[in-house]
Amino acid sequence: MNKITAIFLIFSSFCFAQQNQEIEKTVRNLFLGMKNADPELVKTAFAENAILQTITKDGTIKSDNIQEFIATVSKFKQGDLDERITIDAIHTDGSLASVFTPYSFYLKGKLSHCGANSFQLVKQNNEWKIQYIIDTRRKENCKEIK
User: Fold this and answer.
1) Which helix or strand (DSSP H or E) is residue 6 part of?
2) How far is the CA of 26 from the CAs of 2, 6, 8, 59, 143, in angstroms?
3) Residue ranges of the domains in the chain?
4) Please, are residues 131 and 50 in contact by the beta-carbon 8 Å criterion?
5) Residue pair 137/120 in contact by the 8 Å Cβ criterion
6) Per-residue b or e along 114-141, where b marks 16 or more CB atoms closer than 10 Å to that residue's CB
7) What is the pLDDT along the chain (146 residues), one digit of tens a residue?
8) Is 3 helix (H, G, I), strand (E, B) or coil?
9) Percentages (nearest 5) of helix, strand, coil residues in the chain
10) Check: CATH 3.40.980.20 for 2-136?
11) Pfam families, from UniProt (predicted)?
């Protein structure tokens, strides 16, 4: 019985790690698309009716249009938009995933601001897509992320 349990645990760990890699790839493709000024890559990261929001300094929620965000990416040169993240946690349940990432955002090589992103992803047609992002933004106490 111990061999069967061990095999199950190894298989489960492998599947879990592979799923996390797929989720992480979707998130990283968003930022790779931004850095490469590639609106098509950015677009592939999002679900059809995705939501993009920011918590302002006074605590209100500001919503941004995803299509406008994607269009803005194309107005920059490659390397101008560089959001560096650290993935702190990935949680999943079936077709739902939650990812938390502290970040530092560089605009044309200069640190602009930092904060944290909270992503909600959904698995659609065997692909993970970002359904919802909410972030914080601040200019103080920013740590550089390599």
Assistant:
1) helix 2-35
2) 36, 31, 27, 28, 24
3) 2-136
4) yes
5) no
6) bbbbbbbbbbeeeebbbbbbbbbbeeee
7) 566 654 444 444 444 457 699 999 999 999 999 999 999 999 999 999 999 999 998 999 999 999 999 999 999 999 999 999 999 899 999 999 999 999 999 999 999 999 999 999 999 999 999 999 999 999 998 988 87
8) helix
9) 35, 40, 25
10) no
11) Lumazine_bd_2 (PF12893)
The total number of residues written for the chain in this structure: 146
What the block records as the tokens of 2 is 């111990």
- pTM score, two decimals? 0.85
Question: Which residues 6+ apart lie within 8 Å of 96 measured at CB?
Answer: 120, 121, 122, 123
Residue with tokens 């972030």: 135
Question: What distance in Å separates the CA atoms of residue 36 and residue 57, rounded to the nearest whole number?
Answer: 29
Q: Measuring CA to CA, how many Å separate 101 from each of 8, 40, 66? A: 30, 23, 19
**Between vectors from CA 56 to CA 54 and to CA 58, what angle results, nearest 5°?**
155
**How many other β-carbons are positioned within 10 Å of the β-carbon of residue 8?**
10
Dmax over CA atoms of the chain, in Å, equals 60
